[in-house]
Design brief:
The protein has helices at 2-13, 33-50, 93-107, 133-137, 161-164, 185-199, 203-212, 255-258, 264-276, 282-288, 354-368; strands spanning 21-23, 54-61, 64-75, 80-81, 88-89, 221-222, 236-238, 243-245, 260-262, 307-310, 316-324, 327-334, 339-345. It has 369 residues and is of the alpha+beta class.
C-alpha cells in the first residue's frame, strides 16, 4: 500500500512527463504512418524539454485531416489529459480568423477597405491623418500596441467591442498611416468595431455566422472569463522554481486580435477553407494574402491577418503565431503543397514557432515527394 501511495504521489510531482496522448483516426493513415510517428516523437520531445503541461497538434491537407493528437494535460490539478477537442487560447491567431470576416464584407459590398474608419465607427475620434480598415488589418495604421499602464493586467470585463476601444481611442497615432509597420492588437479591436458597423451585427455573432459555422469550426468561440466553457483547458506559466496557474485575464477588449479559443482541428478546417476557397472567392483570398507595401515601397511581408514568406527550402508559406497568458498557438499553411499545420499549448512563453511548425510539416511533405 505504501508503494502505491508513493507512485500516486509521483503523478502530482511529475505530471508533465507522463505519457498521456489522445488521438483520432486520420485519413490516409497508412501512407502517413511514418510521418505521424516522427511527429509524435518530435512533439513529445518539445513538451518534455520545455516542461509544457499540454500540447495539441493537427495536420491536414485540402482533402481532410491527416493527423490530430493531444499530448500531456489540459488540467494538471485533476490530471485531465489533452484531447483533440480541448480548447486553447489562440492569442494573435485570432487575427487570421478575423481576416475572413473582412473578406466576406468586402465580397458582399458592405465594406470598403480604403475609406476612413469613421464611416463604420462614427464615434471613433478623428486623428491627424485618416485611418482605413485595410491599414488596421495590415498593422500600418499607426494605432499603438500594449502599454504597461493599460487596464488589462487586472481582469476588466468590457460589455461591448466599443467599450474596449476606450483603452486607446484618445491616443495619438505613432506614425502617419501607410508609412510604417507597427504591430497592434488594438488595431484589430478597432477593426472589430468596423466589422460591427459594416455588418450591423455584433462581432462574435458575425464570426459565428460567416466563418465558424460555414467551416464547421464547432469548437471555436470567445474565451469568456465570466462563463463556463466546455472543454477549455487550464492555463499555466513558469515561476522561478515551479509551474503555476497563469494570472486571471479577461480578453473581452480584444476578441478580434487575441481573444478567441479553438482547437488545432478547427484551425486546420479554417486553413482548408482558405486552400479550397470554401467561403471566399479566390480573388478575395488573394486580397487577404497580399503583402502590404509602405509608402516608400518597403514590403512588410504581412497581409490582412497573415504573415507571408517562404520556408527554409524557399517554398511559399503563410502563417501566424499567437502568444497570450497561459497559451501559445501557431498556424502554418503551405498553399502550393496544400498542407496545414496547427499547434496549441497551455503555457506562457512556449518556444513553438515557425521552425517547429516547419519541422512537423516536413515529415508530411516528405511523404508526398
Amino acid at each position: 500500500m505504501r508503494i502505491l501511495t508513493f507512485l500516486f504521489g509521483l503523478l502530482f510531482i511529475f505530471p508533465v512527463c507522463a505519457q498521456v496522448k489522445t488521438t483520432t483516426k486520420p485519413i490516409e493513415s497508412r501512407a502517413f504512418r511514418k510521418a505521424i510517428r516522427s511527429a509524435q516523437r518530435y512533439v513529445d520531445s518539445l513538451r518534455v524539454k520545455q516542461d509544457i503541461p499540454g500540447i495539441s497538434v493537427c495536420v491536414g491537407s485540402a482533402s481532410g485531416i491527416l493527423w490530430a493528437e493531444g499530448f500531456g494535460y489540459a488540467d494538471l490539478e485533476n490530471l485531465q489529459p489533452v484531447t483533440i477537442h480541448s480548447k486553447f487560447r489562440l492569442g494573435s491567431v485570432s487575427k487570421s480568423l478575423t481576416s475572413f470576416a473582412i473578406g466576406r464584407l468586402v465580397e458582399d459590398g458592405k465594406l470598403d477597405p480604403d475609406v476612413p474608419v469613421q464611416q463604420y465607427v462614427p464615434a471613433f475620434p478623428t486623428k491627424k491623418y485618416p485611418i482605413t480598415p485595410r491599414q488596421l488589418a495590415t498593422h500600418t495604421a499607426g494605432i499603438r500596441h500594449y502599454q504597461d499602464n493599460d487596464p488589462i493586467a487586472c481582469p476588466v470585463r468590457y460589455p461591448s467591442v466599443h467599450d474596449g476601444l476606450g483603452i486607446f481611442s484618445n491616443d495619438s497615432l505613432l506614425f502617419r498611416p501607410g508609412t510604417a509597420y507597427g504591430y497592434s492588437t488594438y488595431g484589430y479591436s478597432l477593426l472589430s468595431a468596423v466589422i460591427e458597423g459594416a455588418s450591423h451585427t455584433d462581432y462574435l455573432s458575425f464570426m459565428k455566422k460567416v466563418v465558424f459555422d460555414p467551416l464547421d469550426m464547432t469548437s471555436t468561440g470567445a474565451d469568456y472569463s465570466d462563463s463556463l466553457v466546455s472543454g477549455r483547458v487550464r492555463f499555466y506559466e513558469h515561476s522561478k522554481t515551479k509551474l503555476v496557474n497563469a494570472a486571471m485575464v479577461d480578453n473581452s477588449y480584444k476578441w478580434a486580435g487575441g481573444g478567441l479559443l479553438s482547437t488545432p482541428s478547427d484551425l486546420v478546417k479554417f486553413g482548408r477553407g482558405l486552400l479550397n476557397h470554401t467561403t471566399l472567392r479566390p480573388e478575395t483570398i488573394a486580397m487577404l494574402l497580399k503583402p502590404q507595401l509602405l509608402a516608400d515601397g518597403t514590403n512588410t511581408y504581412y497581409g490582412m491577418g497573415w504573415r507571408i514568406g517562404t520556408d527554409s527550402m524557399k517554398k511559399p508559406i503563410i502563417h501566424h503565431g499567437g502568444s497570450i497568458d497561459g497559451g501559445r498557438t501557431f498556424l502554418l499553411i503551405y498553399p502550393d503543397e496544400k498542407l496545414v499545420v496547427a499547434f496549441t499549448a497551455n503555457m506562457s512563453g512556449v518556444n513553438i514557432n515557425l521552425p517547429e511548425a516547419q519541422t512537423i510539416a516536413q515529415f508530411f511533405l516528405a511523404t508526398n515527394q
